[in-house]
Amino acid sequence: MFHRLVKDIHYGQNLIADQLVVNMHRWLSNPNSLLFNPSIKNALNILMKKLCLLLVAEMQKLGAKIIFCSFKKIILSTERHSLPLAKSFINSLLISINKKPIFASLQLGIIHFSVILLWIDSSNYAYVYASDEEKKNGRVEAKFGLANKITGEIKNKFIIMIAGFIGMLWNKKKGFNEEELKDRELISEYSIKILKEEIIDSLFRLTTKLVVLRPKLEEMAKENASLDIPLEFINCACRVLSVNPALEDLVDNLRSQLLLIIQKDGTISKSQNNLIWIPPSPIILENIFCPKCLQNSDLDVNNNDDTLFVCSYCRNEYPLSLIEEMLIERTSKMQASFALQDWKCVSCKKIGANFLIPYCECSNKFEYTIKQEKFMNNLDMVKRVAIKHKLENLEYVVNHVKQCFMNNRKIR
What range(s) does the DNA polymerase epsilon catalytic subunit A C-terminal domain occupy (predicted)? Predict the structure, then answer.
């Protein structure tokens, strides 16, 4: 069927066949589609991953340094120090890739260039635009999903501080000549200088202010009693600043001093999980179709900075009712998975074949494959999304599931 559609596009210029091919992945991946088959979906995902790996290998062979790769986008470093050279490199890279028959089905294009990039993951990054347009050139964009727990004015100051850091670094680099731009030690020295002279004082002032406001902040964070906002602020700031290897030692020392201010032990041990920054868990809704640009994309509703859910391609707003319906379905599946899960032996990890037998053949007890704490944490994450975006039906469903779970534990 696929080959006949491609043939019809090539010879007959059939627009309907073209739309079917473009949306083929959507039909094969959507469980509500008549074309959906789990084995076909798994085979398709394996082929897509292999193609991505081949594409990454080809780009690295041509001189690009890959920073991030997914099915939707690739972020790479050209290792060039001027915009014209970077554009020439990317254009020659795309021409070389398009000549390869294996990549003929891919549609590759340039989104934008950046002169400085601070990258942790797809939900936490900041960069300085590099553009021929004066309005865009030098503009700083920042998104930090890791700071979602730090709400309001504190989060804004955190983002402004990080944006100011890379903005000052960019202003200094503008005055460098070609040889100085290639000198990594010189750039590292100036990064340390900015951190010492501009950022450290701001961090100490904000941390001291947060300690004073801690009772008020705890009152605001009633839905998450274990959340310590001053500690979370320190973890986020130090995690972002330590991305630069040249700043690691200085940031570690700074972190120890900040922890002393909020009355936490400055030394990090394995038992002190709350002192170690843990990436926020994502809640990804896959293959959401946009009726405006006719593209389907994945949406992380937990690490979403915006108050609205928008398409990653055209920024069109998704209906809240659609997101709420998908999250309710996700909650229902989580509940079913937890209720119908297997038991496994704590020692030999063998799956229990008979639920009436309390012990394994090796005389050890069985345990759940899905931990109760993990299940409750997942429900709490969904509930926080419901509260943030005022999804009343979703909040009611989550509360009902949690109440049923707690009642079941009391009966046992």
Answer: 1-126
**What's the rounded Cα separation, in Å, for the pair 115 and 122?**
18
Greatest CA separation found in the chain? Answer: 75
Structure tokens at 19: 């739309």
Sign of CA dihedral 182, 184, 75, 159: negative
| Pairing mode, strands 140-144 and 124-130 | antiparallel
Average pLDDT, the chain: 83
Integer Cα distance of 77 and 62 in angstroms: 12
Q: Which residues pair with 121 in a beta bridge?
A: 124
Q: Tell me whether residue 239 is exposed, middle or buried, using C-beta atoms within 10 angstroms of its C-beta: 0 to 12, 13 to 18, 19 or more.
A: buried
pTM of the entire predicted model: 0.77
CA atoms within 13 A on the CB side of 91: 6
Backbone angles phi, psi at 219, to 5 degrees: -65, -35
128 neighbors 115 (Cβ within 8 angstroms): yes
pLDDT for res 270:
39
**Which residue type occupies 393?**
N
Average of per-residue pLDDT across 135-141: 84
Q: Are 274 and 196 in contact (CB under 8 A)?
A: no
Q: What is the dihedral of CA 355, 356, 362, 368, to 10 degrees?
A: 40
From the list 238, 165, 233, 157, the residue with the least C-alpha distance to 195 is 165
Rounded to whole angstroms, the Cα distance separating 258 from 279 reads 20
Amino acid at 84: P
Q: Where are the beta strands (DSSP E) in 231-295?
A: 284-289
Task: Give yes or no for a contact between 150 and 228, defined as CB atoms under 8 angstroms apart.
Answer: no
Q: Which two tokens stand for residue 55?
A: 């594409």
